[in-house]
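ok, trying the design again with the full structure, not the truncated one.
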């Protein structure tokens, strides 16, 4: 596999189109950023073409492929973008992959931002860090599965298993944004785990109108005591945020059974929501007879907390005897999941994921 190739990448969001180039797993310093807001579809598509042209020129036009994330719903395999909430100009379906291949005459690969974020963290982020720490601690167990979630304008997800991205048959694999909001079963989980979600939770706690609610960073600063405001309401809002996130992670990781990594603009507020998330992941269910049993089959640990990390790394190895022999083998009886924040940063993780996906497709 030749990794010494230049791949053009794009992080397409509702606010900005950010173009980068990656070679040999390293991102070029130059970045092209254009506003997503456009008067019509043709103007927006021309921005995408021009952005790729500019970043390609910055790399002496040596690009071997274009690989980037774009919000769904979409047919990612065929590169057709569907009815987007944050980019309504794409409604009805736009053949973005074929358009760009006609323009640049190189292969084009498109995928979901949550998928590429997770792939990037699986290759060079949280997953290899966890496995290195386990090795350094003398633990033989390794993790091969990663669940990624992004918290920002939307709530996205991705799954990587043994280095392979799981996309599903309809390009809808790991689209966990359609889970139910446990605080309001008539709405999706995006109404809690997004920018508008935390603003709404804070507005409810302070009994103010949603339009008067401050921005997430300000709510975080108030909660941390770094800014004047209703600190208890801010803490309560972020804890509710953490409770909803725990429900999503528990449901998803029941199928994935791996490490969970959190990215997106809201992930920086983890000191206020992650402890509650871990608490709720480890809560108990009640049986009909009144007995208790764990919410998940695995125990969850906060990888952003020194104590939590040490507890996660502390696997008790038991040597068991192989039946009908004198041979003994190690047995790690405990089942654990770790939850941590992006190690690469969301944008870089997406770029690395897009690059690796393209390199794999090119062969």
């Amino acid at each position: 596999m030749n990794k010494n190739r230049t791949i053009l990448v794009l992080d397409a969001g509702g606010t900005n189109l950010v173009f980068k180039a990656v070679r040999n797993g390293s991102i070029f310093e130059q970045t092209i950023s254009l506003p997503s807001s456009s008067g019509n579809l043709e103007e927006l598509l021309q921005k995408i073409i021009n952005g790729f042209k500019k970043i390609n020129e910055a790399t002496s036009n040596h690009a071997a492929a274009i690989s980037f994330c774009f919000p769904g719903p979409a047919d990612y395999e065929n590169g057709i973008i569907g009815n987007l909430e944050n980019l309504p100009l794409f409604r009805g379906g736009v053949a973005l992959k074929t358009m760009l291949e006609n323009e640049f005459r190189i292969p084009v690969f498109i995928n979901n931002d949550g998928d590429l974020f997770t792939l990037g963290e699986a290759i060079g982020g949280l997953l290899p860090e966890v496995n290195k720490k386990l090795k350094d601690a003398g633990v033989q167990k390794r993790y091969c599965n990663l669940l990624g979630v992004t918290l920002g304008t939307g709530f996205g997800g991705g799954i990587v298993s043994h280095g392979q991205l799981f996309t599903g048959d309809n390009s809808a694999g790991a689209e966990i944004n359609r889970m139910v909001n446990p605080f309001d079963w008539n709405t999706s989980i995006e109404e809690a785990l997004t920018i508008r979600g935390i603003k709404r939770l804070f507005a409810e706690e302070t009994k103010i109108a949603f339009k008067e609610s401050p921005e997430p960073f300000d709510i975080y600063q108030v909660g941390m005591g770094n800014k004047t405001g209703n600190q208890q309401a801010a803490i309560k809002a972020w804890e509710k945020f953490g409770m909803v996130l725990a429900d999503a992670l528990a449901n998803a990781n029941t199928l994935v059974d791996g490490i969970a990594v959190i990215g997106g603009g809201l992930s920086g507020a983890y000191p206020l929501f992650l402890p509650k998330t871990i608490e709720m992941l480890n809560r108990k269910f009640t049986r009909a007879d009144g007995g208790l049993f764990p919410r998940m089959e695995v125990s969850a640990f906060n990888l952003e907390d020194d104590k939590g990390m040490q507890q996660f790394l502390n696997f008790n190895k038991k040597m068991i005897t192989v039946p009908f022999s004198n041979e003994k083998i190690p047995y790690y009886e405990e089942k654990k999941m770790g939850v941590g924040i992006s190690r690469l940063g969301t944008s870089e993780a997406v770029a690395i994921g897009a690059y690796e996906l393209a390199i794999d497709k090119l062969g």
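Keeping the full-length input from now on. The chain has ten helices and 21 strands.
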